[in-house]
């Protein structure tokens, strides 16, 4: 599966990964085979095919593809139900390939974060263009999610540091700037992140308070 582990590289505009590997969920074997042949002809590697939503989830856990193409109506679990699991559990984006264009299905797909919705029959040209556009949409969405997570982490780290700084000021009688310098020096000396040290200070304080407070 494409690697998104580097938040910084993604946010700085580094070369983004291309979609390469695909899995398919389609309960009609001939349609699945046709789709597989079209994808292979376009240069994608089809890692496997499944006949229903539950099987495609198992396949995804084993193969970890870049993207999944799912039929909408399948036995045991629908394509939309499977799409929710694939993205929320494994971060695998989904395109729906269906004969149904009902508004309720399209809107439900959008609510679940499905990145593309194709109507059968799908030509090779349509598939090629749609895969490219859908993948770019996914990359933009993923980048935004990573940047949001990074901002949330920075905010959480800042709160930890402020709390730890307050405890150091209280316990050692230091000014705010002195307490911050203590944390910064300890971070440099131990080569530990400031947030990690701050959490250690908070944990130690809570431990001491627990020891000092007699239990009834």
Automatic annotation (TrEMBL):
<dbReference type="InterPro" id="IPR008327">
    <property type="entry name" value="Sig_transdc_resp-reg_antiterm"/>
</dbReference>
<dbReference type="InterPro" id="IPR036388">
    <property type="entry name" value="WH-like_DNA-bd_sf"/>
</dbReference>
<dbReference type="InterPro" id="IPR005561">
    <property type="entry name" value="ANTAR"/>
</dbReference>
<dbReference type="GO" id="GO:0003723">
    <property type="term" value="F:RNA binding"/>
</dbReference>
<feature type="domain" description="ANTAR">
    <location>
        <begin position="141"/>
        <end position="202"/>
    </location>
</feature>
<protein>
    <submittedName>
        <fullName>Putative transcriptional regulatory protein pdtaR</fullName>
    </submittedName>
</protein>
<dbReference type="InterPro" id="IPR052048">
    <property type="entry name" value="ST_Response_Regulator"/>
</dbReference>
<feature type="modified residue" description="4-aspartylphosphate">
    <location>
        <position position="71"/>
    </location>
</feature>
<keyword id="KW-0597">Phosphoprotein</keyword>
<feature type="domain" description="Response regulatory">
    <location>
        <begin position="21"/>
        <end position="135"/>
    </location>
</feature>
<dbReference type="InterPro" id="IPR011006">
    <property type="entry name" value="CheY-like_superfamily"/>
</dbReference>
<dbReference type="InterPro" id="IPR001789">
    <property type="entry name" value="Sig_transdc_resp-reg_receiver"/>
</dbReference>
<dbReference type="Pfam" id="PF00072">
    <property type="entry name" value="Response_reg"/>
</dbReference>
<dbReference type="GO" id="GO:0000160">
    <property type="term" value="P:phosphorelay signal transduction system"/>
</dbReference>
<dbReference type="Pfam" id="PF03861">
    <property type="entry name" value="ANTAR"/>
</dbReference>
């Amino acid at each position: 599966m494409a690697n998104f582990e580097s938040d910084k590289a993604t946010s700085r505009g580094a070369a983004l990964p291309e979609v390469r590997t695909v899995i398919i969920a389609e309960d009609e074997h001939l349609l699945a085979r046709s789709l597989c042949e079209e994808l292979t002809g376009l240069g994608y590697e089809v890692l496997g095919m499944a006949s229903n939503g539950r099987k495609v989830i198992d396949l995804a856990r084993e193969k970890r593809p870049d993207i999944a193409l799912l039929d909408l109506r399948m036995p045991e679990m629908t394509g939309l139900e499977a799409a929710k699991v694939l993205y929320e559990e494994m971060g695998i984006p989904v395109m729906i390939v269906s004969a149904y264009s009902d508004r309720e299905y399209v809107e439900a797909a959008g609510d679940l974060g499905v990145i593309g919705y194709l109507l059968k029959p799908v030509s090779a040209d349509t598939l090629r263009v749609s895969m490219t556009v859908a993948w770019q949409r996914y990359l933009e969405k993923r980048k935004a999610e990573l940047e949001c997570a990074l901002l949330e982490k920075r905010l959480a780290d800042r709160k930890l540091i402020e709390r730890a700084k307050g405890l150091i000021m209280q316990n050692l009688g230091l000014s705010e700037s002195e307490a911050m310098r203590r944390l910064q020096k300890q971070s440099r000396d131990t080569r530990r992140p400031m947030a990690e040290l701050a959490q250690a200070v908070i944990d130690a304080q809570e431990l001491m308070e627990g020891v000092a407070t007699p239990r009834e």
